[in-house]
Design a protein that fits this description.
Rossmann fold, seven-stranded mixed β-sheet, alpha/beta
Length: about 220
Amino acid sequence: MSATGWIDDTRNSYDTVAASYAEMLRDALTGAPFQRGIFALFAELVRAQGDGKGPVADVGCGPGRITAHLHDIGLDAFGVDLSPGMIEVARREHPGLRFEVGSMTALDIPDASLTGVLAWFSLIHVPDAQVPAVLAEFHRVLAPGGALLIGFHAGEGSRLKTEGYGGHPMKVYVHRRSATRIAEWMREAGFVADAEMTHREDVNIEGAFVFGHRPV
């Protein structure tokens, strides 16, 4: 695969599953108190910086369900996603919020303009070699003191996902990583890695979360 081939595959795959993805996950947070707690902590960390009123980017926002939740708990949240299909669904389902098509490898966001960045299970499709560049983008757009939260599949190894969300065809690699590795990448990009958490939803799914911030 070329250096950018994974971007095309990810965009096309999520365009294909956008509607079914949104339908299947629309109410997922209702039965996920741990995840809601993680978002509440992220919101507190954002509000602790400066006046706590700056914008927060949900990078890889999909159909906007997490963006909407962040807005509901008081953050000035907007969403960015590689997939135009996902953004179309997000704008339709959350018409009062801002959503933009964009890549986390080159965000159309001014330097040091955000108080928070969330990458919620969106870094999982980024190859190892490209992760440092993505984290450098997050560092660039965050203001000093701004908060970063990365959620991802914990573990080791990668697998090719060929279908999902109702059996639709996909072509994306899903990369599992340790919290220690994500924290190392964050520090190499100039962040302070503040905390690591692991949440096992069931015996087959393990999620991990790393909180960090851009130093003042």
